[in-house]
């Protein structure tokens, strides 16, 4: 009977060790859940960025409006006959 109790105690300690410390332990599962949540957040941000880029690519492919808007914004181009106005801040406001 003592041998059976000793064997059962050893088995219990072994299983408890795996539950708290070993592979697949509660601590590891908790860590993996945190990493999964972080990765899902990153994926959401990247998905939004991809959708924005896809809209921009489609706009550039479909017509000249997207190309014109891109040239105006990125390169500062204007059409013939248009007048460009640039508003500057006074020097005293820049210093603040």
UniProtKB/TrEMBL annotation:
InterPro entries: Cell_div_FtsB (IPR023081), FtsL/DivIC (IPR007060). GO terms for biological process: FtsZ-dependent cytokinesis. The keyword Cell membrane applies. Keywords: Cell cycle, Cell division, Cell inner membrane, Cell membrane, Coiled coil, Membrane, Transmembrane, Transmembrane helix. Residues 22-96 are periplasmic. GO terms for cellular component: cell division site; cell septum; plasma membrane. Pfam families: DivIC. Residues 1-3 are cytoplasmic. It is found in: Cell inner membrane. It is a single-pass type II membrane protein. Residues 29-56 form a coiled coil. Belongs to the FtsB family. HAMAP family: FtsB. Essential cell division protein. May link together the upstream cell division proteins, which are predominantly cytoplasmic, with the downstream cell division proteins, which are predominantly periplasmic. Part of a complex composed of FtsB, FtsL and FtsQ. This is Cell division protein FtsB. It comes from Microbulbifer aggregans. The gene is ftsB.
């Amino acid at each position: 009977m003592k041998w059976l109790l000793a064997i059962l105690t050893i088995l219990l300690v072994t299983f408890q060790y795996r539950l708290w410390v070993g592979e697949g332990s509660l601590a590891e599962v908790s860590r993996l859940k945190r990493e999964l949540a972080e990765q899902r957040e990153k994926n959401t941000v990247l998905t939004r960025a991809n959708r924005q880029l896809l809209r921009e690519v489609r706009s550039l492919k479909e017509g000249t409006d997207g190309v014109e808007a891109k040239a105006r914004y990125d390169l500062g181009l204007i059409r013939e006959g248009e007048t460009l106005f640039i508003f500057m801040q006074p020097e005293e406001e820049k210093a603040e």
